[in-house]
Amino acid sequence: MDLRSYYPYWLLDKSIPAIYPSLLQNITADVTIIGAGISGAIAAWYLRNSSEKVLVVDRRHAGMGSTAASTGLLQYEIDTPLARLQTLVGISNANKSYILCSQAITELTKICRRFPASEFEMRPSLQYASSLRDAGCLRKEFELRKKIGIDLELLDEREIKSRFGFSKSAGLLSKNAAEVNAFGLTHSLLQYCSGKNAEVYDHTGIKGIRRVKKQFELFTANGVRIKTRKIIIACGYESKKYLPRKFDQLHTTYAVVTEPVAREALWYNKAVIWETSSPYLYIRTTRDNRILVGGKDDDFSGSFKRDKAMPRKAKMLAHSFSKLFPHIPFIIDYNWAGAFGSTKDGLPYIGELAGKPNIYFALGFGGNGILFSVIAGQIIRDLIYEKKNEHADIFNFSR
Ligand SMILES: Cc1cc2nc3c(=O)[nH]c(=O)nc-3n(C[C@H](O)[C@H](O)[C@H](O)COP(=O)(O)OP(=O)(O)OC[C@H]3O[C@@H](n4cnc5c(N)ncnc54)[C@H](O)[C@@H]3O)c2cc1C
User: Fold this and answer.
1) Is the overall model pTM greater than 0.85, yes or no?
2) Cβ(376) – ligand 1 distance below 6 Å
3) For the chain, which domains are there?
4) Are 378 and 362 in contact (CB under 8 A)?
């Protein structure tokens, strides 16, 4: 499956930081992680202090799936508004999901502090009302989020204008948000873990899995066998073949990055910005003051249509940005597109399938994919160590 089109900014900016050998000999491990994207790297991170031998294998170079395409906005706000999520999964699980995403930002803050290549920065997050009708929904969201302890402000038109320079009838400004270079972070985590209890092999695709008593045998495309006690499936949108049915819907999302602009031209605290409409426009900046704009999603994920649509979508993204910020020069330097999965409730699928013990899924489908990878890493660590995790049921396959 082609996960991406064109070249994401992160790849061209710094190229691939590390490559790993491919697996050429039969090997035995305690835990094998299939997929060396951000989900696999974070899963390895949470197992780094154990005495277990961990293998991470990927059929591409590490991070070269969806992770390389990620625009790296970190927001506790799930694509499904809290009010709607409460009706879908119940008040308690919806509230916990929002709180867990907020805590995952705090957790990533601590992790990323060690890794400069993660380019992690805390930023405020503005969600503006795309229409007058949505302003009412934002007011309701404000009350619900406040009630669960989220630190945010409800901005009116005048306050949005004074901080951001454009006019929208209402907006929610949250303190706890951030931006990251997911590709850089993935490589940093894998390099760190390979200095501990993990071995990383790229260009090592898994072709088959066979359960043998209480163990597994994995077969690679090169004909090598891995014996392992436990498996973590972190294959992103290519995990389908390990699942009994479809759990996500694939779309395409598009992104562009401009040439650097003057810092003074940018808005309030370089906040990350998104909106209430669906699909939504999303905006962030980079360390060198480039502007990244994404959105204009399509309901298909095929690479042929995606490649063809890219030039038109880049123009549309530029146009939408310039409507908000007409005074900021918008000269596109990079553009790309990628497959993007969503679930019926906006939550990820994490854990084991009924009747299939010791195979753990880390499927962070949705706009919060990176934060979902953190939650998945924590839950799977606990499941592997047979420790109770009180949140595991929220994201299980039988919900
Ligand atoms: C354009 C775009 C923008 C996005 N923006 C954001 C954002 O702002 N914030 C956010 O949180 N999320 C965002 N996402 C989503 C986020 O990027 C994903 O949730 C995340 O990258 C998924 O990581 P992953 O490790 O699960 O999957 P991947 O990065 O795809 O990694 C899976 C890996 O598994 C490997 N693999 C698959 N099958 C096999 C096999 N059989 N054997 C061996 N290896 C295998 C693949 O080669 C791949 O490297 C965005 C996605 C896109 C496309």
Assistant:
1) yes
2) no
3) 4-69+183-247+346-395 (3.50.50.60), 122-176+249-342 (3.30.9.10)
4) no
